Sequence to fold (508 residues):
Amino acid sequence: MREHNGSAEGRAGDPEPWRVCLSDSSGRALGAGMLLGEATVLTCAHVVQTAGEEALSGGPVLVRFVGLTGMPEAQATVRPGCWVPPTDDGQGDIALLDLAEAFPHVPGAPLVRLGAVRDRVVHTYGFPAPHRYGVWVNNAELAGPAGAAGEWIQLNSPLPGERVRRGFSGAGVIDKATGAVLGMVVTEYTDERAGLAYLIPVEVIVRHVPDVARWVGEPPRPPAGPLIVVIGDRDSAVRQGFLAQVRRERRGSRISGERLDAIVDATGKTTGEVAEHVSAGISTGEVLTVLETNPEDVAVAVTGVEDARAPEEVLTDVVRPLVDKGATVLVQFSTPDSPGVRLARRWEIERNARRLDRLALLVEMVEHEEERTRERAARLGSPVAVPGGSADLRLRLAALRSAGERIEPGRVRRALAATERDAEAARWELVRLYGRLDALADRHDELRGRLRGYNAKATGAGLMEDEELGELYRAAMAVLTTRPAEPEAAAEPVERYVRAVRRRLEGA
Fold:
């Protein structure tokens, strides 16, 4: 496999660089797909089937990146064991493809696992004829469970306007509020007058193709960094401990290296002069590099904003670009009525609103993990206590939503960050617990299958009347039935039965 570094051009401006188009050798668009890892693409099985028997027998399909310029087309083949063709009633229809080249510098699709969601506004990008380079469907809505066994979620496109139709299969369905990928378009409703289509949620994709689980995570964090507004005397930003505030804002983030920081007094300075002082305080070349790779390592304080030559220009042309790239920026004003305060406060409130959207999705994810973990524990008969933190998180989310502009945005921001951390920790605790329960269930099923398999061999050999075998079989089955959450307790009884059957068969 050859590694391709990807194209820097276009990558920063494309929020979904993982979008790909699948085509056959003639260049005809077959459908869409998502880059998951550096050399793995997720799509619908029927999209690959459209390429013909050559693709199904191991021949390649072509994969083209949509939002990145200068990227080569790559060949892809179906990954063994990751091919789930659609059944007659539409279940399954999932495929993982291996690329002939790796693209380590292209971020993968941010998959998140939810239950049957509804009323979320989403968008998606497909390749209906004759749009070889694709079209967007914006402001579609998730309506709820649908399809065979409730595996799909109904997707309503807004009409009039572009709708999800043939050519969108395999496309990622993107939550408009957070940028998270909730599922994959699987089919359209053939009535041209209706804007109906269906998607396979990530939860179902993972159920059919467990390999996908490694790419399932949390919704993306908003790219903008914290904007800290300080009202007080000119030296307050320094006296109160600028870096201490930054550490508090960034608590829990993965800081990769030494922090780059600068404190600039904007008093009497033009916008250009403030920008020059920021660059001089950090080193222009270094800050640009770090902002592209690890923006959380950059922190800037701008004091005396209201006494700059043009306060709002300093905010718009210096502060906002830094925050938008992910740096932490503190701005100091003398009074609540100082020029620029209202603009900075509005930005704080807007950023809080975006984080609230992400937190809401996180809380839904925690609720879903709790539900499926409880179901798994109940089916297994496990006495394990499943954490139930989602109710508290839901209350905290409601309190933050109701805060509005009554509470100082900085307090809301810090409460949001704390609740986010708690939600993320709760989710991962549940994911780990589910994984342990799932491993126990797999081991139980393995032993049960082994026991029944050898029982079938004994029956086929005419050993049904063998009393010793009957006793050994019943003893092993009793442990599997009464103690399903402790499969290792049944391992030895199962093996005793297996050894006894083998002895009988070898002596026959």
Residues 7-12 have pLDDT under 50 and may be disordered. DSSP finds 13 helices and 18 strands in the chain. The first strand starts at residue 2 and ends at 3. The two ends are 52 Å apart (CA to CA).
